[in-house]
Design goal:
By secondary structure, this protein is α+β, with helices and mostly antiparallel strands. The chain is built from 13 helices and 27 strands.
Length: 487
């Protein structure tokens, strides 16, 4: 064997030895350290469903399906199917407050013990730490890789030194220490965990809302144009922003307590035989009734709402603000436009001015602004931007000061709103007239103001300065070539 071969052989042997040493170091030291760290990680978790060797790679996420929460002497059971919604199944059947339950689950998934006390606690020490008779407990059941895993956490007293709490897991005598915030997330009563949004409903699926109270009686519904329309006491548009505000106010109310006695006698005692207001909501093919009541002789702010949703009936005490949320005047919700209308439903506009009447129409199946045509006094294509601008201006006209609630013929003549003097805009659709605006004489001493009467047949003042821009003359509307007049 030559010297070069001997050198190469020695190098190969050294590499093999080095590889073996490295493999030993990795398997015997590095992997062992990883497993030790993973075991420590598991021991620090509140809920640790995985094995240490799986935890090295991140493990599997727990899908919680059952919680038993005990706090302040109450035990609440919550259950769900994997991937489904939570429900309270004991001591009552009820929907949950999703934010609160999510907080419980989040703590179980992410929270950790920050320290462990040395050794195993004696009975006396368990008593000292409040774990002989826990302040709260949570029994959690989760599905991990198709297998059910359970754990029971018990919380004791607060450490006055730093606000942390003493805890133990699965009845162990090993006492752990957790941040104080864990207690606030886990120690929940039945009331804390249940849904308190007594007046909420599926707003997207809502098709009709009605109210009857001592002061108000109205009903509005969503029609084919996707807008809200009052059907009682008058057929007029509702204001979309105000309706949204009404829904938000109802959604924002919370029950401050729930009534367990739902008997007829109890309902009578709470004032439901003579309710203050009743709201009926039709949403998603079902009807929800919300009834507001006050106990007889109660001069304070004690109010109750009864929610009837299918076979479910709930009664909760609510704040005084619930009365304002439920009992709304139609004036707050009605579209404040002088001639409320849905632009997409308009198929014909007539502008009656001092020089005659200009009529523009479009085919009912054409939503394009390019589909408008002038019909009279001479036919031709309409200026699309003029029609669009006219519809926008008319939808924006708001009523100012009310002059006459019940005008008569003499009032029409006095304010220039009679047939001879008024300028009139009539909006029509496939089913007839959608709205009409009459503009009368100018208001003395108020620049740009005129008298007007709209859908509600009330004489008001309006800012008419922009209305002079409407196409009162046919030439303003006809879209003809520039040289059309010279041929």
């Amino acid at each position: 064997m030559s010297q070069i071969q001997k050198t190469l052989l020695s190098l190969v042997v050294l590499l093999a030895v080095a590889g073996g040493v490295g493999l030993y170091a990795y398997q015997g030291v590095h992997q062992a350290d990883q497993k030790k760290a993973a075991q420590k990680d598991l021991e620090e978790r509140l809920f640790a469903p995985d094995r240490a060797e799986r935890s090295v790679d991140g493990g599997a996420r727990a899908d919680f399906v059952r919680l038993v929460v005990t706090a302040q002497g109450e035990t609440t059971v919550l259950e769900r199917e994997p991937g489904g919604p939570w429900r309270i199944t004991a001591p009552i059947q009820a929907k949950v407050d999703a934010l609160v339950v999510d907080g419980v689950v989040s703590q179980l998934q992410t929270a950790r013990f920050k320290a462990s006390l040395e050794g195993e606690a004696t009975d006396a020490e368990l008593e000292k730490y409040g774990l002989a008779k826990p302040v709260f407990s949570v029994e959690a059941e989760a599905v991990v890789d198709g297998q059910k895993k359970t754990a029971k956490l018990e919380g004791g007293v607060e450490n006055p030194f730093d606000g942390s709490i003493f805890m133990r897991r699965d009845g162990s005598r090993k006492v752990q220490v957790a941040e104080g915030g864990v207690r606030w997330s886990l120690a929940k009563t039945t009331f804390d965990l249940r849904d308190k949004a007594l007046l909420s409903f599926d707003e997207a699926a809502t098709t009709r809302v009605s109210l009857k109270s001592g002061a108000n009686d109205w009903s509005f519904e969503k029609r084919d144009d996707t807008l809200w329309h009052f059907s009682r006491p008058e057929d007029t548009l509702a204001d979309t922003v105000s309706v949204t505000g009404l829904f938000a106010a109802l959604r924002g109310e919370r029950a401050t307590a729930f009534v367990t006695d739902l008997s007829a006698a109890s309902r009578t005692a709470l004032g439901f035989d003579q309710p203050l207001a009743r709201v009926v909501i039709e949403a998603g093919g079902k009807t929800i009734t919300l009834t507001l009541a006050q106990p007889a002789g109660d001069a304070g702010d004690v109010l109750y709402v009864m929610r009837e949703d299918g076979d479910e009936r709930l009664i909760g005490q609510v704040a005084a603000t619930a009365r304002n949320a439920m009992d709304r005047n139609i004036g707050e919700l009605r579209d404040r436009s002088l001639i409320p209308f849905a632009k997409q439903l308009v198929t014909k506009i007539a502008f009656k001015g001092r020089e005659g009447t200009v009529v523009v129409e479009r085919a009912p199946d054409s939503q394009s602004v390019e589909g408008w045509k002038v019909n009279s006094p001479k036919p031709g294509p309409a200026k699309a931007y003029k029609v669009a601008n006219a519809l926008w201006m008319l939808s924006a006209v708001k009523a100012g000061e009310t002059i006459s609630e019940k005008p008569d013929a003499s009032s029409f003549e006095r304010f220039g709103l009679d047939e001879k003097n008024a300028r009139v805009i009539t909006l029509s659709g496939e089913k007839g007239v959608l709205g009409e605006l009459k503009i009368g004489r100018a208001v003395d001493g108020k620049q740009g103001a005129s008298y007007a009467i709209g859908t509600r047949k009330v004489i008001v003042e309006i800012d008419a300065s922009r209305l002079n821009e409407l196409p009162w003359n046919v030439d303003d509307l006809l879209d003809l070539p520039a040289d059309a007049g010279t041929k």
